[in-house]
Amino acid sequence: MKRGFAVTGFLLYLIVALYQINFALGLINMPNFIVSIEKWIILLGAILIIMGGIKYLRRDYY
């Protein structure tokens, strides 16, 4: 049962990270991606969230 909670936590991390990646990259339209530093910061945050989710999944909760 604890493994299910770990997988659910990882999926929540992944959903938030994918949302931030979509916001940072502007997958629909990205005309000024390189110019805006805020999007790079959000992209870095998304990568850190994915890394945290992987560490959360690897913990011995199950």
Overall average pLDDT:
71
Number of domains: 1
Order of helices and strands: HH
What's the N-to-C terminus distance?
7 Å
Number of helices: 2
Rg (C-alpha, Å): 14 Å
- Sheet bearing the most strands, described? none
Describe the 3D structure.
With 62 residues, this protein is mainly alpha-helical. The chain has one domain. It is 74% helix and 0% strand. Helix 1 runs antiparallel to helix 2. The longest helix has 24 residues. It starts with a helix and ends with a helix. The mean pLDDT is 71.
Q: What keywords describe this structure?
A:
single chain; elongated; 62 residues; 74% helix
In terms of topology, how is this protein built?
Blueprint (H helix, E strand, L loop, with lengths): L1 H24 L11 H22 L4
Helix pairs in contact: 1-2
